[in-house]
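the four lines:
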Amino acid sequence: MSRASDQAYARIRAHVLSGAVKPKEQLTEDQLAQITGFSRTPVREAVRRLEDELLLVRSESKRLFVADWSRDDIEEMFTLRQMLECHAAERAARRLTAAQVADLEAVNRTLREAIEQPEPDVARFLEANRRFHDAVLDAAHSPRLGQMLGRLVEAPVVLRTARSYSLDDLRQSARDHDELIAAFAARDPEWARAVMGSHLRRAFHTFAKTVGPATGNADGEV
Amino acid sequence: MSRASDQAYARIRAHVLSGAVKPKEQLTEDQLAQITGFSRTPVREAVRRLEDELLLVRSESKRLFVADWSRDDIEEMFTLRQMLECHAAERAARRLTAAQVADLEAVNRTLREAIEQPEPDVARFLEANRRFHDAVLDAAHSPRLGQMLGRLVEAPVVLRTARSYSLDDLRQSARDHDELIAAFAARDPEWARAVMGSHLRRAFHTFAKTVGPATGNADGEV
DNA sequence: TGAACCAGTATTGTATACAAAATGCCCGCG
DNA sequence: CGCGGGCATTTTGTATACAATACTGGTTCA
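prediction for all of em together
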């Protein structure tokens, strides 16, 4: 991750997420080259990755813009993530070793420590949460699933929204993880799938409350 | 699709699928530039797309190889495709207009004509089949779903295996499409999902018969 | 007035040269 | 004979110049 294109990727992503450029605004490769300090070649590589994640989009004539996601887009992302990650949980339940289950328990302990203290450490929570889900995905042992979920989870909605979680929400996440671990220990794929499903679906509704009700039409941009 | 990188993509893809290079063989960007007649810049763009489709893979040190898919890899692809396309069928059932249903009927008529003649035209069947599934995906109106399925369906397994379908298999496909259309006309998402599921799962088993039984371990390369 | 065209500019696409990194080979040493 | 170090070669990564394409604004003509 030390190649120029990787750094360019990280910097452009941060730049967009910081809000310095707004949705639907145009970006040019030259601009991004100046901002990142690299030439257009690695910038193009980075931009292509960000296009894959749909953080940037191109017009029909190949001009580059910051994507603006509608509420429906975001619901779609949550739904797809749920579908894929439920599948991952089911596969993981069939494959996880006792040692891997123990690892998950350790990660979830860390996650709890991050929130069960005077001043909850949301960043640490998010990091532990990411590791937890990564471990499940890893155990599913399905490279294409990993690739697809990577694009969805990278999606910055998760980061933006996590800030709005209440302490109760975070605690419920930890409990969900506990139950998931129980399902894994019991080697029960259906249980694992169901827990993962409700875990992620609740996350969506927590998010939806902060954004506003469903629209059905095309407004409700974020 | 007339840019150099697009042509390079098509040529490299054809070159690999032709079997001129075998799985696990190394390719270099220079080689591919010579083969395609373009410079390395568009070749690198094309190679990245083929990496996304997992037709090409890179070693940990960034050297480029032709992927070799195990039977488990292929089963995974079929499973993921089934999962995603069932979801697409469900969404389509909620959204398809009467005109779109009529279009699907027309496409399926074409598909039948291709096989119900003295000398079945498999290429025409495949083309109609692709259009049918594309129309369903379109109606699902979910860009990320489309992106993901695109990568899976592009995967050449489908093409390689379709040749081994018997006439009965092709006829069954047409009947599946009929039932799917009925489900759409009835606006019944669950029905549509179920039909799509059995349609694709049968395709997997038809394929599996030609390749051999499940392995469980890592052999069974194709 | 307004629509079509033309030139100038902005932006993306491609080729090429060079830099960095990895691999493999060969030689010396134990 | 084995094996470790280092140079030569291969291969990928980056910068830059140029080509092709798309946009913008203004001008002309009906």
